[in-house]
Design brief:
The protein has 435 residues and is mainly alpha-helical. The protein has 18 helices and six strands. It binds carboxymethyl coenzyme *A.
């Protein structure tokens, strides 16, 4: 018989509480502590949420010990092999794989919401050409709420659906424009006859004066990477979207806050950091020096693209991307890509090193993704933007789920206050002038 309560006793007072234990479909049991403070007078302390579930969700499941990742129950390996990013987007948003008619309608809706309000284009000109594209993304995406007033009522399901479609459909257009601005080329309008990733490549790399042909290998590679990046449970950026959304902020503002959180090098910014790191290492003969730096507690250097809060095994996404690197580089004729060779050697040395073994540090999704982006011609400062385009699907699905959850309340964590105790105000002329 499953134990579905957990009793906690305060030995100093003898008072105890029986807390309900919730069980999801998969994963460890979860103690429901919502009554804990009210009845026992204690807060719980868990910086970084190491042991805290912040919500209920039916979208993504991760088993970090066994390296398992499921979207709506489907193993990531199967989706990577058999699905497409747009089908995965439907799955994320609506819970099941679409039938042919649903797929057709959904693809059509995404394709026909790709344009952005023409006035938004002038926002880009407010940024200097060397602005980081992620900075531009945060600003431009956040401003969508100033344009699309007919999808801002979060209590109206039709508004929510329309906002969801708009965010997913317009994200590649906004991303490509941030690239075009950085290289001083004219913006390219979306072409709705193209697929999601083909359109992104078209808007990034075509110019009005030349014909541009989309390379099907590049398009499929991008689609596959986007599937792998579509969602990842309650990570920092997704939790940021949910936290912002819990105050009933509009979805465009919430997703913009997610882009901001994603930018950090401990999260989505790691893909850019990996390439910069490989460039800095430069040659296999320098690997041991950099590994020593990563192990040195007095050095802030970390092996970027290594380690994960949840995975204590190889990140299943990294496994798929590593295989994909072999395939894509071979097809594009770059089989001996020096960055890929260096990354493989670095992985090999790190995985045989006691420091990394003892801490179960394996390559994560960001370790190899930049190598593919690079051979597709995507500049390093656009890597995290690519991640943001794919993750928009997850942010939107998680936001939609949160809004419809009857348990949803404004998120309001507590703290351990360690500041000064209560004290009286001292007028300026009475304060100690020596300090
Ligand atoms: N290089 C060297 N040491 C590391 C690394 C690393 N990349 N990652 C973790 N460690 C060590 C860390 O110093 C600590 O050692 P000790 O126990 O001796 O103090 C131990 O491993 C546990 O690390 P932690 O920082 O407590 O773990 P965390 O769960 O708080 O952090 C992480 C997870 C992903 C932020 C971290 O592993 C890291 O900074 N990795 C490099 C950045 C990176 O690749 N981020 C992408 C994450 S996956 C994609 C995404 O989320 O967007």
């Amino acid at each position: 018989m499953k134990k579905d309560t957990l009793t906690i006793k305060d030995n100093s007072t003898g008072k105890s509480i029986e807390l309900p234990v919730r069980r999801g479909t998969l994963g460890p049991p979860v103690v429901d502590i919502t009554r804990f403070y009210r009845e026992m007078g204690f807060f719980t302390f868990d910086p970084g949420f190491l042991s805290t579930a912040s919500c209920r969700s039916g979208i993504t499941y991760i088993d970090g010990d066994d390296g398992v990742l499921l979207y709506r129950g489907y193993p990531i390996e199967q989706l990577a092999e058999k699905s497409t990013f747009i089908e995965v987007a439907y799955l994320m948003l609506y819970g099941d794989l679409p039938n042919a008619k649903q797929m057709d309608t959904f693809s059509h809706l995404i394709r026909t919401h790709t344009m952005i309000n023409e006035s938004l284009k002038s926002f880009y000109n407010g940024f200097y050409h060397d602005a980081h594209p992620m900075a531009v993304m945060v600003g431009v995406f956040g401003s969508l709420s100033a344009f699309y007033h007919d999808s801002l009522d979060i209590r109206d399901a039709d508004h929510r659906d329309l906002a969801a479609l708009r965010m997913i459909a317009k994200m590649p257009t906004i991303a490509a424009a941030s690239y075009k601005h950085s290289v001083g080329e004219p913006f390219v309008y979306p072409k709705n006859s193209l697929g999601y990733c083909g359109n992104l490549l078209h808007m990034m790399f075509s110019v009005p004066s030349e014909d541009y042909e989309i390379d099907p290998i590049a398009e499929r590679a991008l689609d596959l990477i986007f599937i792998l990046h579509a969602d990842h449970e309650q990570n920092a950026s997704t939790s940021t979207v949910r936290l912002a959304g819990s105050s009933s902020a509009n979805p465009f503002a919430c997703v913009s806050s997610g882009i901001t959180a994603l930018w950090g090098p401990a999260h989505g910014g790691a893909n850019e950091a990996v390439l910069n790191m490989l460039e800095e290492i430069g040659d296999a003969k320098n690997i041991s020096t950099y590994l020593d730096k990563a192990k040195d507690k007095n050095d802030s250097f970390r092996l970027m693209g290594f380690g994960h809060r949840i995975y204590r095994e190889y990140d299943p996404r990294a496994k798929i991307i590593r295989e994909m690197c072999h395939e894509v580089l071979k097809k594009l004729g770059n089989e001996n890509d020096p960055f890929f060779e260096l990354a493989l050697k670095l992985e090999d040395v790190a995985l045989n090193d006691d420091y990394f073994k003892e801490r179960s540090l394996y390559p994560n999704v960001d370790f190899y993704s930049g190598i593919i982006y690079r051979v597709l011609g995507i500049p390093t400062n656009m890597f995290t933007v690519m991640f943001a385009v794919a993750r928009t699907v997850g942010w939107v699905a998680q936001w939609m789920e949160m809004i419809s959850d009857p348990d949803q309340r404004i998120a309001r964590p507590r703290q351990i206050y360690e500041g000064a105790g209560i004290r009286d105000y001292v007028p300026l002329d009475k304060r100690n002038s020596d300090t």
